[in-house]
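Please supply some protein, with fold tokens.
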Amino acid sequence: MQIAYLPGGTGPRRLRIVARERVGGPWHEPVEVESVRCQLAAWLRDGSGILCADARSTITAVSPDGRVLWQRDLRVLHNLRGGSYPGVFSRDGATLYMLATRADGQLGLWGIPMAGRTPRLVVSAGDAALSLYGALSVSTDRLFATVSELEGDVWVMRLR
């Protein structure tokens, strides 16, 4: 069992991983991942590493032992600036869904194909009354996003 976390405080936020062999067993000392700086982190869908997002809109997949698996600069590749969450992958791993802002100011939830094709705006957050929070989750056939509206209604939408 492993837990990845970003320590609080005022110092640099280096990704740390703490592990134990079994439930109820002792935790090992946390290991600091030196190869990448993370502002936000989430485990990759298959558990092979951690997806890190930094302040420069670079997303990096790093293994638990600190090896960089891959890296993408969203500004250079897609004119996108990352949002408040590193994102989640589709079930097949072909698309990364994340909150981001395009260079023209278009804020929303974007589907970013890992094969390098053009990102698709899935949900626009152009309405001042609408707020995308950043909590994203993928099930076997659905993408869930936390959206807030000042009127307090709950909305469910089907995406194609």
Remarks:
- The chain has a mean pLDDT of 78.
- Residues 74-78 form the longest helix (5 residues).
- Helices lie at 74-78.
